[in-house]
TrEMBL record:
InterPro entries named among the record's database cross-references: Asp/Arg/Pro-Hydrxlase, ASPH, IPNS-like_sf
Name assigned to this protein: Aspartyl/asparaginy/proline hydroxylase domain-containing protein
UniProt-listed Pfam families: Asp_Arg_Hydrox
Domain of life: Bacteria
Domain Aspartyl/asparaginy/proline hydroxylase: 88-243
Amino acid sequence: MTENEAEGVSGTVGTRTYLTQMIRRYYASLIDAWHYAGETEKAMECADAAVRQGVWDQPLQRAREHIPGLRAQPVHDPGEFWFIGYLEESYPRIRAEVERVLDTPLDPVVPTTDDAGLIRKGSWKQAHLYRDGRWQSHVRARFPITSDILEKIPDVTELSPGVITMSRVSPGTHIMPHCGPTNGLLRIHLPIIVPDGVGIRVADREMQWQEGKCLVFDDSFEHEVWHRGTEDRVVLILDVLHPGLQGDHRQRVLGRRRNFEEQIIEFMRERGVERVAIRDGEITLTPDAGVRELVATYMAGTGLTGVHLDGDRVSWERPDAAPGPRK
């Protein structure tokens, strides 16, 4: 094969990989939209169609970054991981610290922004002790005992591109069905406070947490959480590499850790923003040329001069007319 032929093959493979990622992204967004609307059957029709078209291998495992060859198993045996015993033995100390911190002026667990779109109803709060390859010092300072315990487990810190998160869900909450971004990670739940009436579904298995007993699952499988009880549920969430991940795939997954600057850049590119600025506490976003042209086209075509979106309410602004709310 000549050098030019090799470059052509490489370019073809790269294009195919890019297209596959884009198709998965659009399919995942459509499925999520149906789930958010409460249309479970239509969501699964889309998932089944994606499998028929070769986008994914099975309808309930829909990672946007799917690594071939990994064991596809929704729930894993905690005994496969050396540190689970140590983590469960440390549960009483972790719980005691959590109970001392929650609902005090020092409580860092706040309404989630990363996953707010998954909340069908209710309240979901989080605090990240570790993310993007580094400890989050302001949260770690609130949970020193828990952090010291976890620091002795490199599998969930420097050997993982994932998160360590304190997660709190209030009564009446429903976190809609969704899939994690990669099958290269497994998610671990150490249940801290588990009242009656809470549960989780992973693929086709419905389960209840047991305080102090770890649940290990592949969150690239569809999962959802509900809370029909009367007291808050608190879980410590950790990520670990899939035990079957090896070689280049392992290095690529580990390389997913991004600093804050890279996250800002990705946010701006995905949303068509060319500039972000903060002045006197006010945030200003400037759209790029493509978004400006698209908005101008829409506004000109409808005769609108402004639109204000507030949850489910929309206010349309037209020339010489007062803004009119609309559901």
